[in-house]
């Protein structure tokens, strides 16, 4: 008794699968994905500021800037402007959150230096 063998995918089928996979991976590197990444990192930083999230934010801002430049080089000024505005809004939020955090950290340091020794 023989078992029927599975048909091998044709070269065109393999190419289609590879292109589909490449498209799925590329979708993770779109400006829209980077904006979502920025929002997530900004929300995390606002809740609990830390260096790891700060570094992730800096990397995400660098990434969206590069993606905006790429859109501009392709002549897609409308999309570039859309993502630039979204990134700018998040930069303002980030800077305000960072300033509040630094002020809080300074107040904590001042309280520790002014606290009476026991």
Key features?
mainly alpha, 4 helices, single chain, 118 residues, elongated
Can you offer a commentary on this structure?
There is one protein chain. The chain has 118 residues and is mostly helical. It has one domain. Helix content is 81%, strand content 0%. The chain contains 4 helices and no strands. α2 (31-47) runs antiparallel to α3, α2 (31-47) packs parallel to α4 (77-114) and α3 runs antiparallel to α4. The longest helix has 38 residues, at 77-114. The N and C termini lie far apart (88 Å). The mean pLDDT is 83.
Largest sheet: none
Percent helix, as a range, is over 70%
> How many domains make up the coordinates?
1
In round numbers, the mean pLDDT is 83
Query: Which oligomerization state do the chains in this entry correspond to?
Result: single chain
Count of beta strands: 0
SSE layout:
Blueprint: H1 11-27, H2 31-47, H3 51-73, H4 77-114
Helix pairs in contact: 2-3, 2-4, 3-4
Concise synopsis of the structure shown:
The chain is 81% helix and 0% strand.
């Amino acid at each position: 008794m023989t078992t029927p063998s599975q048909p091998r995918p044709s070269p065109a089928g393999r190419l289609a699968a590879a292109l589909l996979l490449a498209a799925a991976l590329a979708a993770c590197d779109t400006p829209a994905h980077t904006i979502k990444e920025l929002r997530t990192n900004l929300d995390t930083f606002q809740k609990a500021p830390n260096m790891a999230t700060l570094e992730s934010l800096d990397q995400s801002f660098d990434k969206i800037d590069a993606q905006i430049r790429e859109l501009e080089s392709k002549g897609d000024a409308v999309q570039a402007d859309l993502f630039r505005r979204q990134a700018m809004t998040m930069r303002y939020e980030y800077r305000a959150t960072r300033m509040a955090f630094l002020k809080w950290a300074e107040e904590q340091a001042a309280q520790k230096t002014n606290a009476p020794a026991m």
